[in-house]
Each structure stands twice: as structure tokens, then as C-alpha cells.
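Marked as duplicate of an earlier ticket. Keeping the data here for the record.
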Amino acid sequence: MEALLLVVIVAAAVVYLVVRNQKNSAAASASTLADAKADARQSIERLGGQVYNLIGSDTASKQALADASERNIAAGSQIDQATTVQQARLAKQTALEGLYYIRAARLAMGMDPGPEIQGIDGQKSAGEVTEDRKVDFEGRHVEASPNPSDRTPNYYPGGRVAGRPVPAGWYSEPWWRPALVAGAWGVGSMFLFSAMFSGMAGVGYGEQEFASGTGDGSEGGDMGDAGDMGDAGGDMGDAGGDYGAMGDGSGDVGGGGDWGGGGDFGGGGDFGGF
């Protein structure tokens, strides 16, 4: 009888410890998620304040602000739907990208760029445009520049699109957008990348690295996050809305970007051959 009683006591103690550990684990997970969402909301609120307080004065600044507005809508939708730390982190990455567009718009208007912004995944390893380049590609005249102009009004803050790098800079057209919509690059993109950036100082990838999606390994931590932004296309599909006619550089954001694999970027189809 005493042995049976001892077994019951031990079993009860084990059940109590298991239940308590599960509750503690659930509480810790909830706290971690809450912290991640609060961190993301700080960047989203900062972005929202800038979006609604700035008005573009030229083509480049208007386009950058339109892109920032799209990121603001997408980040807000993402954080509202976030149920994991990774989803909250993705919302923050979207907001940070928007803040880089705000910074670009301010610079284009000759304003103080404001405080520094936390880096985004893949940004450093992708590098940046350091000189003016003009290439003819599949019947199109494509330009890249470290500075905004009427010829290069489309800014990108640098990072990965569908697992491949896009250096930070100003472009005549958003040549990365077809991959953003489809979630994969076409064969022609490798040749455009090579023609545009071959031998350019500051760009972290060469043609072969672009083709394979690998880098020079000099930024291990950054490269380790490639999957985070590589999956962004699918997750950001929840942002809802239609990006509108952004393919023609008009800056019409519509109801917020649809970054999903089946998303609608309106004029994205104008950039054929990818």
C-alpha cells in the first residue's frame, strides 16, 4: 500500500512539473513575441509619421515616397497578422526598408536625411552603386546611378530579391520587380546584372555569384539571413491591395503592395525578358 501511495505521489509531482514547465514556456514565448511586435511597431510608427508628413518635390522624391507608403501599408498589415517572432521580424524589415525610401526622398529633395537606420537583410553584402552606368538591354536603355535624377528616379535600398542581390542605388527602372512579383529571376537578369555592375567598386557580387545566389562570404551573418528575405515574397502577399501602375514610375501606390507570388504590380509586366 505504501509503495502504491509513493508511486501516486511521484506521478502527481511529475505531472505538476510538466504542466508548470509548459505554462512557463508558453508565457516566455508570448513575452518574446510581444517584445518582437513592440520592436517592429516602433519602426512602423516612425515610418508612418514620415510618410504622412513629407510631400515629394520632384520625380525621384515622389517615387521614393510612394514606395515608402507601400512599405508602410505592408508592414502594418504584416504586424497585425503576426503570430510568430519571425513574422514580427519580417514586418520590421519591411518598415526599415520603407525608412530607407524616406531617407532617399529627403536626400533627393536636398533635406537632411535624418537619423541612421538599422541595416536590413542582405543590404551590406549586396553593396551599392558607386558610379553612373548606362546599358542597352533587350531594346531598353537601363541606367544606374548613386544619385537621383530625372533619368534615375527609382531607388532601391539594397538587399535580396528572390535570393539575389540588388545593390542600393538609383535606377531608370525597377529592373528587380519582375523577380519580386514572380519570386524567381529569369535568365536575362544575369546578363543585365553583369552588364550593369561588372567591375564596379562597391558591389558585393559578381555575375557568377548572382547566378548562383551566393556571395563572397565576407559577411557571414548577413548571408545567413538570406532565407528571411528570400521568403518575403510569399509572406508579404498578405499586405493586400494592388500596387497599381508603378511599372511606369508614376508612384501610384493604390491600396498597398501585393508582394505575393501571384501579386499584381500593375505595370510590372512592362519589364519583359526576365
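See parent ticket for discussion. The longest strand covers residues 140-145.
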